[in-house]
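(Fold this chain)
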Amino acid sequence: MLKVKCFPVRKKFDEEWREPKIGHQILEKLLIELGFQKAVLPVEYGGAGLNSIVTLFLALMELARGDIGLAVSLGCVFWPQFPLIYGSKNEHILEWLSSLFSDNKPHLGCFAITEPQGGSDIENPRMEGRTIRTIATLDKDEWVINGVKQWPSNSKADFYLTVCTTNPKLGKEGIALIMVPGDSEGITVTEPFHKTGVSADYNATIYFKDVRVPKEFRLAGPGKDADALQLNLILGGLGSAVMSIGAAQNAFEIVTEYTSQRIVAGKPLKEHSIVAGILADMAIKIELARTYTMNIAYMFDHSDTKWSDELLAKARIAKVFSARMATEVTGDAMHLMGSNGYSKDFEIEKLWRGVKESQIWLGGELMSKLDIARYFCNLKQL
């Protein structure tokens, strides 16, 4: 399916960065015809009840072979739903999502975390929500939300699981994850940012001004919402890793075919030992990243607690290693292909631009390394 519908048109995604029409047409097929929209929704709410991260992330890895931006956009339909599957099964939100999906139309989801002034502070568990400035105030039977979110994937969405605080001074106890319908009054979404790549994913700034939602749309409550945030950071790290791996796999396929056909000194380029060694290194890196990441996904599937510090640290390792691997693999592919490597005709440069972004989002390498060191080195101060 991807070769038929994604590969031939993916060059156009960059042209449509303001409004990814072709990308959304493909997403509609994935969400509706292949049933991904309801994949993780429990069976009793009309979904498929898929609760295997291994299975789901293998599908995202394959989609990222075609385009990492499409994979991000699809993955972010699941991301706001994960805490409902693995954490608190809030019946009010599940019933609302079931009703939303019942019209058999595509609906994008958004997990709104990052804010303009805090950068990746909210994604840092040690900050315990103290820097969150999107405030949720309980007014009788409604939450009133005011604040700004910046850079979330699927910024134009039909449902937003929004990271708020009831009071920054409360720390973890103040963290509140609230489901906000996309058509709620008071939501304003700006034009998308013009990015290096990943153009099929719409990133913008979202303003919440006196947005009102039912009090039952808070995910779980004090403390439990902080656990759900960590759960989604774990899955965000693993998801980033599988998308990096998918893109790297496609780069490896392209460069292997190219070096099979390119004749240098009377034989295919890949038959020269120095080139064969580089290709072997690329294969080693991809296989190691895939094996480690899916091992941690399996660990997640079989863990009783889905938001442990161990899982967070190991998911961060998967993200750091896989994203770095993908930038190296796409870069090496570009070197082996010479000028054709940065030609848009061969699409290596598109993959290279995309995987660089996967290395930066969710706090980047440095944020990830702090969580890794905290767990493995028992850091107390950082």
In short: The chain has eleven helices and nine strands. The first strand starts at residue 109 and ends at 112. The two ends are 46 Å apart (CA to CA).
